[in-house]
Amino acid sequence: MMSDQSSSPLLAVENLRTVFHFADGAYPAIDSLSFELRAGEVLGLVGESGSGKSVAGFSLIGLVDAPGEIVSGEVRFKGRDLRKLSDEELRRVRGKSVSMIFQDPLTTLNPVLTIGEQMMEAISEHETVDPATARQRCIDTLTKVGITSPQTRVDQFPHELSGGMRQRVAIATALLNQPELIIADEPTTALDVTIQGQILAEMQTLQKETGTALIWITHDLGVVSELADRIAVMYAGGIVEIGQVDDVLDTARHPYTLGLLNSVPGDTPRGEALRQIEGAAPSLTARPLGCPFHPRCFRASDLCRTGEPPLAQAGDHSWRCHHPLDPEKTP
Prior knowledge:
- By secondary structure, the protein is an alpha/beta fold.
- It contains eleven helices and twelve strands.
- The chain has helices at residues 53-60, 87-93, 115-124, 131-144, 150-153, 163-175, 193-210, 221-227, 245-250, 255-262, 302-306; strands at residues 11-22, 25-37, 42-46, 68-77, 80-81, 98-101, 181-185, 213-218, 230-235, 238-244, 311-314, 317-320.
- The protein has an eight-stranded mixed beta sheet with strand order 6-7-8-3-9-10-12-11, sandwiched between helices. A four-stranded antiparallel beta sheet has the order 2-1-4-5, covered by helices on one side.
- Helix 3 (115-124) packs across helix 4 (131-144) and helix 4 packs across helix 6 (163-175).
- The chain is globular, with a radius of gyration of 21 Å.
- It starts with 10 loop residues before the first strand and ends in an 11-residue tail after the last strand.
- Mean pLDDT is 90; it is low at 1-6.
C-alpha cells in the first residue's frame, strides 16, 4: 500500500495548534500536533471521544469555525503550507487534491438536490466538463463504491436512500476528482456492523486501486488494525504514540494505548469484566499540567504531574511518556 519511505511526505504537519475561545480564555483542542503521511499510506487516527481526532481532521484543511481558531503550526501538502493559502486557493485544493468524508452524510448532503446534482457540482467546481460526461463519471463512481442501479440512484434525493447508501454516496463524492488524500472522519460509526464491514472492504479495495493516501479517524482499533499501515493514538489534543500497526498493537509503549487495547471486548476472557480505563478524558478547559493522562495512569509519578513527557523513538515507533511500558513485561 505504501510508497517508498525515502520519498518526501505527501503531508507534513508540524506543531499544529487549534484553540477554542470562551469568555474566560482560549483553550487548546489540538496542541503541538505533528506527523507525516506518505503517498498511498493509510494512517489510523484513534482515541476516545474528546481526544481531538475530528478537530485535527478539520484543522488540516481549514474547516474550523468560530469559536475555534487555528493559531499556529504548519500543514504542508506536497510542500505547500495550506495555512498560508488564500481562501480561494484553499477552496481549489479542497475537494480536488484533498477530500473529506464526514461522519453523518445527512449533514453534508443537500436534501433538496438529487445525488447527481450534488456530485456534478463537485466536479464542476474544479474543472469544465459537459453535463453528460459529468453524469457518467458520477454513475461510474457510484458503481465503484457498491451502489446498485446507479443510473436510478443518481436521480434520487438523499432521503430516498438508506444510511449505508448515503455514506457510499459521500465516499463516491470524495473520490470523484481523484484526490491524493482523503480524510475520513468516523464514516462508518453510525452504520450497522454488516454495512460497516462492506464499506470498509470497499474502501480497502478502492484505496489500493487508486493509491490515494487516507487518514481514517476512528475510536475502533479493530477497524484500523485491518485498514491502516500506521496508527497514531491521540489524547487531549496530541499524539501520544505513533508507529506501524503491528508495532503499536503488539508492543504498546504508552499506558493509554494499552488501556485502549485492554478495553476491546474481544480481548477479554469470557466471564471477566472489561479492563476499562479509569476516569474520563479531561475537558477542554481543565487540561492537567504535565502529562495530560497522569490522572488516569497506573504508572503516574510526581514527574508526570509536573513535567511534559519527552519524545522517545525506536525506529518508526515513537511515544511520549515518562514511564513507558516495557514490551517484554506488558500486562
